[in-house]
């Protein structure tokens, strides 16, 4: 065993040396000094979550922080202007992703955009998704959003205490309708289970063994060359093969159901239908196209469900804790929208307070604490700093949205009058949905889905603190520590408003 470890240490050192020599004599951005060969691996592996460590490093070293693991450079950027300069203006250099070998080559996520390397395949996926999710295409889903929102309101009226479950079903069914035109009316639906299993098991596998093969792709030979009976390897290979099958099942099953619905002539617009149409119809769809469409539609759940849920649950928390803001929003809705109907997406232009409200909501929530890392495809310099080819650039979105007075307060006025904005971008969506050529392609449908849910909930309900022994119990403004920023579970009262009780 000792021999294997020593041999492994030599192999790792040999693989790291070229990169370490390249960095010598160059002025890198400031950051924590790591150990030889492993770099900052130990600090990262000890951290409860990497982004919690990134916050500490940013406070200590500034707006741009360099660190490394096994000679692989990484950089945290917590300033909006620098992120824009690098990830947008220099998008030709910074639109790759780090090499996620385990996800893409072993676990079967090769057709999933968020982990895809920059190249022809990504361009194909971005083209397809942009054609089907751009602002004009997003309008074709207005009825779909209204339908799902109506189910949400009904569920909230019947069982207000179960609002977490209803928001989960809302976010999930929006994605399944959008991607496949399939109805998912409960969180226990088998399609949701397939998708959750694939995402959860892949994340577990990544935590257990992923990073090493990502840093040293040549370790893939373990999968291709080691016989199945090799100790330890047999179990690893078997586990990973099972996950790959789960990923395939999660992508293939709803796709097949969508195809059957399209063939029956009863399908409404969906991403799958749009993708098939854009290729000229089913008979022109090759096996490779099918794999791509399955991956494209399949990843919408992973990319869009949790982020939407985090935003809407945080909205409810904010309304309970900032009642004055709730009343102001309801006042605008009541002044503009007749009492015999609910606001819909066509009303958006007539509700300026709500527009500023949504901006403050994104700022206050910051649904993703850090961006998905971009990676650079060639050497670059920022100011005097050398940024080596292959650097993973992690934009700290939460930091960018908290550089204003009293960031913990929900203050819509920041975006109405522009005062109290500090260094926060005037439209937080510019940070919340990422940057440049990798910016979230779902931004318009996500924004429509958040807007209609929020505005219709405000029109229909009052969100109030619980009352115990005659005293109002305001929930704590506490959030979890995962990368998607969910509020910690809280309780509140949700009561139908008299003004629109009968709709
Ligand atoms: C409030 C909801 C959402 C938020 C906050 C959000 C945020 C983000 C962010 C920050 C990224 C990374 C961008 C970058 O790397 O620069 C991203 C990527 C992505 N998002 Fe969203 N998203 C949301 C909803 C959605 C929805 C509803 C969909 C699909 C309908 C979607 C599809 C995707 C995809 C496919 C990517 C990967 C793009 C790529 O790697 O090129 N997202 N999203």
From TrEMBL:
<feature type="signal peptide">
    <location>
        <begin position="1"/>
        <end position="16"/>
    </location>
</feature>
<keyword id="KW-0732">Signal</keyword>
<dbReference type="InterPro" id="IPR050364">
    <property type="entry name" value="Cytochrome_P450_fung"/>
</dbReference>
<keyword id="KW-0408">Iron</keyword>
<keyword id="KW-0349">Heme</keyword>
<dbReference type="InterPro" id="IPR036396">
    <property type="entry name" value="Cyt_P450_sf"/>
</dbReference>
<dbReference type="InterPro" id="IPR002401">
    <property type="entry name" value="Cyt_P450_E_grp-I"/>
</dbReference>
<dbReference type="InterPro" id="IPR017972">
    <property type="entry name" value="Cyt_P450_CS"/>
</dbReference>
<comment type="pathway">
    <text>Secondary metabolite biosynthesis.</text>
</comment>
<keyword id="KW-0560">Oxidoreductase</keyword>
<keyword id="KW-0503">Monooxygenase</keyword>
<comment type="similarity">
    <text>Belongs to the cytochrome P450 family.</text>
</comment>
<dbReference type="GO" id="GO:0016705">
    <property type="term" value="F:oxidoreductase activity, acting on paired donors, with incorporation or reduction of molecular oxygen"/>
</dbReference>
<dbReference type="GO" id="GO:0004497">
    <property type="term" value="F:monooxygenase activity"/>
</dbReference>
<dbReference type="InterPro" id="IPR001128">
    <property type="entry name" value="Cyt_P450"/>
</dbReference>
<protein>
    <submittedName>
        <fullName>Cytochrome P450</fullName>
    </submittedName>
</protein>
<dbReference type="Pfam" id="PF00067">
    <property type="entry name" value="p450"/>
</dbReference>
<dbReference type="GO" id="GO:0005506">
    <property type="term" value="F:iron ion binding"/>
</dbReference>
<dbReference type="GO" id="GO:0020037">
    <property type="term" value="F:heme binding"/>
</dbReference>
<keyword id="KW-0479">Metal-binding</keyword>
<feature type="binding site" description="axial binding residue">
    <location>
        <position position="440"/>
    </location>
    <ligand>
        <name>heme</name>
    </ligand>
</feature>
């Amino acid at each position: 065993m000792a021999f294997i470890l020593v041999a492994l240490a030599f192999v790792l050192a040999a693989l790291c040396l070229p990169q370490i020599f390249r960095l010598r004599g160059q002025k890198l951005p400031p950051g924590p000094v790591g150990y030889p060969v492993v770099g900052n691996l130990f600090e990262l592996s000890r951290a409860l979550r990497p982004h919690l460590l990134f916050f500490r490093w940013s406070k200590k070293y500034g707006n741009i922080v360099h660190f490394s693991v096994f000679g692989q450079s990484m950089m945290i950027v917590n300033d909006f202007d620098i992120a824009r300069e690098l990830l947008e203006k220099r998008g030709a250099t910074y639109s790759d992703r780090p090499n996620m070998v385990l996800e893409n080559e072993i676990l079967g996520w090769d057709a999933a955009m968020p982990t895809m390397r920059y190249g022809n395949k990504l361009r194909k996926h971005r083209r397809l998704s942009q054609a089907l999710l751009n602002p004009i295409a997003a309008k074709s889903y207005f009825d779909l959003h209204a339908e799902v929102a109506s189910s949400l309101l009904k569920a909230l009226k019947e069982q207000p205490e179960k609002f977490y479950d209803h928001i989960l079903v809302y976010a999930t069914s929006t994605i399944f309708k959008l991607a496949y035109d399939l109805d998912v009316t409960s969180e226990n639906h088998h399609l949701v289970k397939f998708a959750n299993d694939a995402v959860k098991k892949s994340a577990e596998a990544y935590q257990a063994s992923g990073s090493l093969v990502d840093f040293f792709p040549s370790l893939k030979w373990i999968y291709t060359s080691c016989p199945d009976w090799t100790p330890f390897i047999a179990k690893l290979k078997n586990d990973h093969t099972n996950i790959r099958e789960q990923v395939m099942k999660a992508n293939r099953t709803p796709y097949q159901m969508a195809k059957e619905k399209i063939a029956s002539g009863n399908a409404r617009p969906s991403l799958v239908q749009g993708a098939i149409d854009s290729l000229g119809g089913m008979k022109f769809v090759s096996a490779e196209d099918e794999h791509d469409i399955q991956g494209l539609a399949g990843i919408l759940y992973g990319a869009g469900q949790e982020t939407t849920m985090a935003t809407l649950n945080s909205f409810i928390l904010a309304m309970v804790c900032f009642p004055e803001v709730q009343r102001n929003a309801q006042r605008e809705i009541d002044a503009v929208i007749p009492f015999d109907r609910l606001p819909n997406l066509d009303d958006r232009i007539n509700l300026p307070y709500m527009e500023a409200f949504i901006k403050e909501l994104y700022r206050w929530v910051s649904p993703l604490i850090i961006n998905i890392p971009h990676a650079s495809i060639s050497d670059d310099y920022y100011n005097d700093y050398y940024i080596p080819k292959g650097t993973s650039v992690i934009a700290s979105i939460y930091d960018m949205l908290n550089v204003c007075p009293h960031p913990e307060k929900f203050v819509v006025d920041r975006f109405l009058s522009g005062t109290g904005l500090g260094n926060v971008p005037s439209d937080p969506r510019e940070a919340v949905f990422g940057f440049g050529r990798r910016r979230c392609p779902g931004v318009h449908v996500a924004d429509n889905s958040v807007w209609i849910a929020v505005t219709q909930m405000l029109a229909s309900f009052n969100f109030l603190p619980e009352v115990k022994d005659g005293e109002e119990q305001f929930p704590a403004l506490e959030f979890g520590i995962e990368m998607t920023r969910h509020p910690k579970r809280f309780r509140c009262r949700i009561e139908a408003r008299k003004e629109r009780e009968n709709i």
